[in-house]
């Protein structure tokens, strides 16, 4: 008889898990609190403007392709993307502008011309980044850290021998200061800590693994926008027979004699052979697993940073702007001190402006642009957000006006705001953190929840708050690691 799986949440990891388990022959049903799939990876429309609501940077696209192939389909029949020629445009208040070309020779030349940094420094940094990736990805990204054979297999043995070179014993900032002469380049490479919501002045230099993804492998853009990652995988899962129940918030995981038996939704019990949870772990243990044994140490780990986003429909074109644009703070250490230690927003924040209409013209009316304007902010600890948001908006507008020599406020046609409170209420992320736990210490990787429950049989976990962590690629890998634990 076909075995049945119930999945709680249709975040990207929930959808990927549904695909993987449907391919294994399970009858899969997904319960989703929202009336749309995708969780953080969704979209909003405002007037004539479309915005990707959350993630904007797409790396490791082969992990999406792998799901279509696994199901015996051609990825290009569902999902198309292009490689970016320029990963990011960087701006500083003193007028310095830098383009991070995908072509390493061009980027090294740009850095040498604009900052006087020897091009060899860039090549060396990216060689080290590739080394960390090649050493650690097989161990940390592709396997459960909670199974003995992960630690005893030959690849793990090789990684132990390289331990001294993997950046475990210094911070990202310390390593980047050693690597580069120019403070602007140190700042540029320190920014990669924010890719998983961490602090470059605390996180181990091991996270210098991240530039490898953007530079050596590449940054990509889905031709129909980031939301198409969700929609194309959602379609695939439906083609495989997965059933979705939207607007159906799971109230409880049913557990009998140490075994998961199903879920309770709207007071009704739905039974299954397996339950997979894609809901944030901290909130899951507070709600749907509140009667179960709590893994207190794992649940008390500090969360990643959150974000404040202004979705702005801008009624003018800015030819100097591209898909990804960063306007750096003049004082990075103080900015991060505000985010991670003081729990507030610095007056001169680094601003990220993502404009998909540069690559997908119908995301804005002719002559306009859709600005997803984001700053990193502390996670929600009950701050006076209305006050902080009003102040941050003023500071962001003044900074953009200074650098772009314009009057942004008069160009904003439509606006919507997402802040740590609404990130939490829309997706159930504890404290509105973007990436689950932060990676601000060398033990963080070991203090994420496993992809299975050690106390409840037939209960499994996927998503950004469990191993191997947050961000689309890691969420997709969590689904892979989890489904490989489940028999056919
Ligand atoms: P989530 O997206 O967290 O979704 C969980 C789902 O579970 C939600 O749909 C929720 O409604 C549902 N749910 C929760 N509780 C219940 C319940 N009781 N019953 C039923 N359903 C429930 N990543 C990148 O790779 N690149 C980026 O550029 C990037 N930028 C980001 C920017 C922002 C503003 C945000 C918010 C995130 C960003 N991320 C980025 C991180 C990335 O979005 C997440 O790591 C990833 O999307 C999380 O997916 P998930 O599977 O963990 O589920």
Task: Give the tags.
single chain, FAD/NAD(P)-binding domain, binds flavin-adenine dinucleotide, globular, alpha/beta, 35% helix, 488 residues, 19 strands
Tell me the strand order in the biggest sheet. Answer: 7-6-15-16-17-14-18
pLDDT averaged residue by residue: 94
In CATH, what is the class of the domain at 4-39 and 224-302 and 441-485? Alpha Beta
Total DSSP E strands: 19
The fraction of residues in strands falls at 15-25%
**CATH architecture classification of the domain at 4-39 and 224-302 and 441-485:** 3-Layer(bba) Sandwich
- Find the structural class using helix and strand composition: alpha/beta
Distance between the termini: 12 Å
Our Rg estimate from Cα atoms comes to: 22 Å
Contiguous uncertain segments of 5+ residues: none
Kindly report the name of the CATH homologous superfamily of the domain at 4-39 and 224-302 and 441-485. FAD/NAD(P)-binding domain
Count of separate DSSP helical elements: 16
**Largest beta-sheet details:** 7 strands, mixed
User: How would you sum up the global shape?
Assistant: globular
User: Helix content range of the residues, please?
Assistant: 25-40%
Q: Ions, cofactors, ligands: which are bound?
A: flavin-adenine dinucleotide
CATH topology heading of the domain at 4-39 and 224-302 and 441-485? FAD/NAD(P)-binding domain
